[in-house]
Amino acid sequence: MADVYISGALTAIADRARARVFYELLAEIVTECGLRPYLPHRATDPVAAPDLDPRSVYEIDRARVARSGLVIAYGGTPSFGVGIEVEIAREHGIPVIIVAERDRTVSRILVGSPAVVDVVRFTDLAVLRQALGSAIARATKTSGDQAPDAVVQRFLGSLGAARQLPEAEIAALLRVAELDGDPASAIRKAVADGKLFGAGLRDLVGRHALRGADLAAFVLHDVLERPFADIARLLGADPRAIRRRVEQARLKLQLAADADLAVIGQWLVTELIAPPTRALQLRLFGNPRSAPAADGAVRPGQNGMENDEQRPTQAEDHRQAGLAVEEGEPRA
Known about the structure:
Order of helices and strands: EHEHEHEHEHHHHHHHHHHH
Largest sheet: 5 strands, parallel
Number of strands: 5
Structural class: alpha/beta
């Protein structure tokens, strides 16, 4: 399955910090089910990204909902945004799970949406964790029962969708990342040429919070393999400063500061290319160790990844198979 979109009110809420913690908890439950959450507040939050114009917010969030495999919508706080996102899910045939406290009133038109496959009511966090985990398992099991041909088509479609992004979303991501001028143009060209997955740019900016020169240096050096001297000229900095920027970016991505390009290439494949299509890959190519459990959930540790000896070969296979436009050139 593609990402699980966590939908919840972000604007005009009484306790913003508490709401964000709750959405992070929902994401944690999704992760425990072996799936990958997407949290809008990490990219388009009105406080974290106040300069992002309304149309860009709409384009980014709409694209993320449309490409998700499941939406979990918090209905305990009335929100126009949540209602719109549920309707987008309905348009694209994406299942929705509504979550709300047992004593909260939830809009009947929201619960009545044809997209809604489950409503999880809870009284405490322990009940939420158990009930939502079960609902996710049911929803993902239903999605996994498709005919093989349909799964193949979804796999190919999701891979294509991950490669390219709407221009409005790229522009919004670059604004959030505080990049303009020549560095922004270089990243735009990398996405247009297929050397950088659009979904990879989205994750570098949203999930990993790379900004400014750190983002530019990482993409130009570790994705496009441009030498430090060239990057220094483009960014107007000393090559030693660019090296430090790259090392800082790697540390933010939980990579070693001195990681070699083979390790970087493996990370790009497993973290920026594979996740958007992970569940479909498991169904098509997974071994018994990575098969879903009886209740349809993929357990932690059953993520379909090969052992350590196989991973560098797999990364090289991806590059040789044409996931990078130029032979041997890793990209996200």
